[in-house]
Design brief:
21% strand; 21 strands; 2-enoyl-CoA Hydratase, Chain A, domain 1; elongated; 17 helices; disordered N terminus; alpha/beta; seven-stranded mixed sheet
Length: 484
């Protein structure tokens, strides 16, 4: 039994997979090194159990590190067993799930272990965008193993016993564990390293099972569809109440109110996660103005601006969706970019990457403008201008360069200064500018909005949209890869 978690390495696998479906591969593989009297040490399965099985009838490959076998440390054959699993998964096109509980590099094997790390990194890199890679940290995940966990697409973490670190908290300049434990699930989730945090092993494994059922097995075979029992024409009359908290709004429009959120603790002004529409998995990205509690009272508020962290969170998510042919939905309500000295160091690059990933994505892309959409920040958020296939907007949405009053004061500054009743003139020019340049009707007349819809009809309009776009084909100029 592991000293750092409730379940053993094998029990974790059996809990993750469907009953009686696990087939072990490489059970007899063990170390080759004889240095430091290693031949006298028994390391069952060289510290990692590998094999395959099914989750809700979906084939997956899995490895689970055994903390009781030399701390689950990664040696030469340990790494080769995992690499072998990757080879098999790539051949058949099935996800790889890693259950991490590891003391790190096996010091007794040094250069051989380093070679094993490198081979594993290479396999993960080759698999990126081909098959989904999921890592669950259920014990220690330090040093090079932390790099491996973040080469995967989704990282899970058990809140009670798991730790992720490249350098341990006590090794950081000016820090020690009692001051700030940088290895905890809370710290790593708020830093954007971890996608999902659950209470314990069992909760993590249950959440992974749910994720696997909504993802395609690989980038070619999209089997992430289920039968929809929800009304495709269901209206959502209360949707307007939830729009400021887009996490709730996405749940309301999804089939049977399904929403699988990722990176919920990181950049909370940007929401990312998966919903279902007519049984189809949709990747959703949404700006958020408030976080509402169960009584619909705001417990946290945001200023409606794009931040570096928010852009990076959305960029990573959209990139994954595009790689695996998962359609993308955005709920846009953005006033501009975060204006602080620190943000100014990074926001331009982060916004450029988000613009690039939306423009470069070839999957079906639908944008719903739910509130104010100002300036180039609006353009970045999956607008028609950078390739959205369909743009919908609510009747009270505002689309423009900036708020109408500010624009009027800039454009008519001389006239306002010369006017005896400046307030009346500002109001008049504000109304004029809003009508001509900032209204949703003005954007629709120019073709930048395809349809103006009511909030309650959002679900059925999106169902129609993705059904229409189901057979979309798009291509890009021939090249090796972009550089943004």
């Amino acid at each position: 039994m592991s000293t750092t978690a409730q379940l053993s390495a094998r029990e974790r696998i059996l809990s993750l997979l469907d009953d009686n479906s696990f087939v072990e591969v490489g059970a007899m593989v063990t170390k080759r090194s004889t240095d430091f009297n290693m031949q006298q040490k028994e390391i069952p399965a060289d510290g990692v159990i590998t094999g395959y099985g099914v989750i809700d009838s979906n084939l997956v490959y899995v490895y689970s590190q055994d903390q009781t076998a030399l701390g689950g440390s990664v040696g030469e054959m340990h790494a080769k067993k995992i690499a072998r699993i990757y080879d098999m998964a790539l051949k058949v096109g099935a996800p790889v799930i890693g259950l991490i509980d590891c003391a790190g590099l096996r010091l007794q094997e040094a250069t051989d272990a380093l070679n094993g790390f490198g081979e594993l990194y290479l396999k993960q890199t080759l698999a990126s965008g081909v098959i989904p890679q999921i890592t669950a940290v259920l014990g220690n995940c330090g040093g090079g193993v932390a790099i491996s966990s973040n080469l995967s697409d989704f990282t899970f973490m058990a809140e009670k016993d798991a730790k992720i670190f490249v350098n341990s908290p006590n090794a950081l300049d000016g820090n020690y564990m009692e001051k700030c434990d940088t290895s905890t699930a809370k710290f790593q989730a708020e830093a954007g390293v971890v996608d999902v945090v659950c209470e314990d092993d069992e909760a993590v494994l249950a959440s992974i099972r749910q994720l696997v059922t909504i993802l395609p097995s690989n980038y070619e075979d999209n089997d992430s569809y289920v039968e929809c029992n929800d009304d495709l024409n269901r209206l959502v009359p209360a949707l307007g109440t939830y729009l400021k908290d887009s996490a709730i709004a996405l749940k309301e429009i999804s089939d049977d109110n399904f929403f699988y959120e990722v990176k919920s603790a990181y950049a909370r002004e940007m929401v990312t996660g998966f919903i279902r529409l007519n049984g189809m998995t949709i990747g959703a990205v949404a700006n958020r103005a408030e976080i509402l509690d169960e009584e619909l009272k705001a417990v946290e508020e945001f200023d409606g601006s794009l931040t570096t962290a928010g852009c990076e969170k959305a960029t990573s998510f959209v990139n994954f969706c595009d790689a695996f042919n998962i359609p993308v939905l955005t709920l846009t309500s953005v006033k501009g970019y975060k204006a602080t000295t620190e943000e100014e160091k990074t926001i331009a690059k982060a916004a450029a990457k988000l613009t690039y990933v939306f423009a470069n994505a070839t999957v079906p892309k639908v944008n719903v403008i739910v509130g104010e959409a100002y300036g180039s920040a609006y353009v970045t958020m999956n607008s028609k201008h950078i390739g959205a296939d369909l743009v919908l907007a609510y009747e009270d949405a505002i689309i423009g360069m900036m708020d109408a009053k500010s624009a009027a004061q800039i454009m008519y500054a001389e006239e306002i200064n010369a006017c005896s009743d400046a307030t009346s003139m500002i109001d008049e020019k504000t109304r004029e500018y809003a009508s001509l340049q900032s209204s949703v009707e003005a954007a629709a007349k120019r073709g930048y909005v395809d349809n103006i819809i009511s909030t309650e009809a959002t679900r059925k309009q999106l169902v129609y949209a993705y059904e229409m776009l189901f057979t979309k084909r798009d291509s890009r100029p021939s090249k090796k890869h972009g550089t943004v």
